[in-house]
Amino acid sequence: MSRFNKTVLVVQAHPDDAESWCSGTLKLLKDRGYKIVIATMTAGGLGGVDTDEEQTKIIRKKEAEKAADVLNADYYCLDERDGYVFDTFEVRIKVLEILRRVNPGIVFTHVPSDYHADHRATAAIVDVAAMQATLSNAPCTEEPMDVTPLLYHTAPMKLTGALGDPLPKPQFIVDISSVIETKMEMLSFHQSQIRLMKSMYNIDDFFKMSKEYNREIGKMAGFEYAECFWQHMSGGFETFPQIQNELKDLLEVNDEYK
Ligand SMILES: [Zn+2]
């Protein structure tokens, strides 16, 4: 039996990030008995077209809560400011506190070389929190966890970094074809993002584009729709392949990691 419990905590920068990058895999894990918790660093207040920052935050938190409800997931907003997620002492402690409170066996965050600055900052903050989850000397009021959680990184749109440089080949690709409609349902609650993408980039339906992206990832492994991930492998982290084992009938592992 695995030492890692069946709670998954996703910590990402904005409402709709978890839905965009890993909600298909979250649904598959939920169906195998996992509890899902989604936290966003910000309420996405910059993402309004005809609402101010405060109004937008209220709207986007509600959208995130409704999307999380599809998985019976808890949703937390850490109320950092959209566009201004910084890796500071206070923010590291805030994330460490929620991590210890939720006590997950598995944590998802962005990939460290993500294209978006808020995502990169979030990835660094979550990396530190996961590393310090068990350390009794960390300056955190919550009790240390018994086991360092497994840390996984989600893929950004287009599998490229900030310079357009290709990201490393994903460690594994998960077949989400059976749950793609659940993913689309979760995304459909984020109507404010559809309006923003139309306004900023004249994209008619941002989430249809997201579905196409999942189709493109699927082609890398012969699946109709897929999401892909990297497990954090650096020193001090646990590297037990819990998701890879749990979903082994639904995923393709990169040869280098078999
Ligand atoms: Zn984001």
In short:
Helices cover 39% and strands 17% of the residues.
Based on secondary structure, the structural category is: alpha/beta
CATH topology: Rossmann fold
| Strand order, sheet with most strands | 3-2-1-4-5-7-6-8
The rounded distance between the terminal residues' Cα atoms is 20 Å
Return Rg in Å: 17 Å
The helical percent reads 25-40%
Word description of this protein:
The mean pLDDT is 94. By secondary structure, the protein is α/β, with parallel strands linked by helices. It is 39% helix and 17% strand. It has an 8-stranded mixed beta sheet with strand order 3-2-1-4-5-7-6-8, sandwiched between helices. Helix 1 crosses helix 5 and helix 3 (89-102) packs across helix 4. It has one domain: Rossmann fold. The protein has helices at residues 17-31, 53-69, 89-102, 117-131, 180-188, 191-201, 206-219, 242-246, and strands at residues 7-12, 35-42, 74-80, 106-110, 150-154, 172-175, 226-231, 251-253. It has 8 helices and 8 strands, in the order E-H-E-H-E-H-E-H-E-E-H-H-H-E-H-E. It binds zinc ion. The site of zinc ion has 5 residues, from loops.
Question: What is the secondary structure topology, with strand pairs?
Answer:
Layout lengths: L6 E6 L4 H15 L3 E8 L10 H17 L4 E7 L8 H14 L3 E5 L6 H15 L18 E5 L17 E4 L4 H9 L2 H11 L4 H14 L6 E6 L10 H5 L4 E3 L5
Parallel strand pairs: 1-2, 1-4, 2-3, 4-5
Antiparallel strand pairs: 5-7, 6-7, 6-8
Bound molecules: zinc ion (ZN).
List the main descriptive attributes of the protein structure presented here:
258 residues; alpha/beta; Rossmann fold; 8-stranded mixed β-sheet; 8 strands; globular; binds zinc ion
